[in-house]
Task: structure prediction
Amino acid sequence: MSVLQLQLHRPVMFICLLVTVALLPKETSLVLAQQQPSSSSFKLLKQLHVITRHGARTMLAKDADTLSEQGGATLTPLGQQQLYDLGVWLRQTYNTTSLSTPNNLSLGYYNPAWHRLESSDLDRTVSSAHSLALGLFPNNQRATGIFNETGSAALMESLLPPGPPAIPVYTTQEENDVYLRSYLNCPTFQDNLQDFYETDKWKELEQLNLELLRKLARIFPESAEDGKIPLKDLWNAYDPIHVAITECGNVSSGNVSSCEALVDEPHLATALSQSEFAKLEALTEKTEHLKYATEDVAGNLLGSNLLWKIIQRTAEPFDGKFFLYSAHAPTMLGFLAALQASNGFVAALSGEHFVEYGSALILEVYQQVMDSPSATGAPLYLKLRYKDSTRETAVDIPMKQDTGEGQVCGTGELDPSQEYCTLTRWTLWATQHTLVTPERWCLACNNSLADVCLRSAAAVNNDADSESAGTNDQAWMILATFVGGFVGGLIVMVGVIFLCGCHKRTKNINGDASSNDVVPIDSEIRGTAGIPSESIVSMTVNDWNEGNTENGDALMNDSDDTASDVENRRVLT
Result:
């Protein structure tokens, strides 16, 4: 079909489509509207989740095996400016009521009921969060968090010197941070790294860059092994050079004081040529991507907890409107790995593998509204975007939804109907491909130190103890029943024998006994009565009554008689 024919047929095709939709049952039309919203539908931006990398900082060394950090990296003035600029960009982009991007994020003022800033427990990330807040909430007022009858929050003036209000930033101790610093608290991931360092893929990458690694060994001889910097230690060669270039490379703009104060070896800014540093930066970005953003090393270990924290906050009624997660490059790369969005990230950035200082992953949560912006219960949609500190605009990052391998969503380049991800279908995919709870993460990461993992282990032990106690109780009940039955039966049997014996003895003594009836006499009684026990075995009743009256009386009066003897005589008498 020619272009002209296609243009002539478009109105007819559109009319046919309208007629077809009109003839569909009401329920079918509603499902189509929920799952495949048209580009002209009204979407209200309901929630914003922003994951940032801190700004420029001082030098930071890392142990390649444990990932532990050596030295305390501090945010530099340039780093503060980068996050402040990001805050300004967020306010200008999302604090608007225009119909092109309608929202009710209420970013005009900080409101503790709607806005929450979280950070890892480090200087560079906490300072980054504060710097972003200065750009995002520049007003001297803040909301009280208490709403009046119209749903508006009262504002209060700050008594501090003129400037933005003090805004809290919430942190978690490093050993308990399983959301923003999970890569430090996941032994399984660290084991995966050790295994990856031994793979052919890693060794081949090292061989391909042997010349550069040898040049770095001459610059950092204390870190060299066999005349080169090992590829796994590349970060500790790259970072001091990168910091020196960042802080000292623009001394002409008046940044000399920062260079002298923050960089121990300013000469490293010129240790490599521009082409050599470009090669070093590209290699470092690739190695960091391989470690933190790939499915075979990081998988879902680094991003699942943060992902599900966000999912829980998207549930209606919404738990806030704006969330900041001030974090690190591995946090952002691990989040992409959990979403299986790393390749889409690289493609969207034309081959770049890393995240820059002051950059952000932004998850937008929309609600499709038919009639009123205040309507609830309408379907929710998502879009993931990346804002680089060197770019004015953000780019869309494709994600996956549905079951199995998933359907690509979040970008309309290939399929306009998939410009957004449907929250329910996206969550369904996450349920099958990520670690849904921190407890599952604890097991997968083999973490037994974080508080959430200790609570999980304690709960498992309590369940096991309860089950064991229940089993023991059952065993004791069975044993007690058996023993009780046996002892009871034994008592009954002895009682029957005893009663039978007494009945027989009473019958022999009190019945119509003849002179020939024989009564057995105990040997002790015989001896006591003066009867030779060795010559007399038994006596008749008449013999006893006629010939042993005196002896019998003596027996009756003997104080040393036993209770059984007295009883025998009482019966005989």
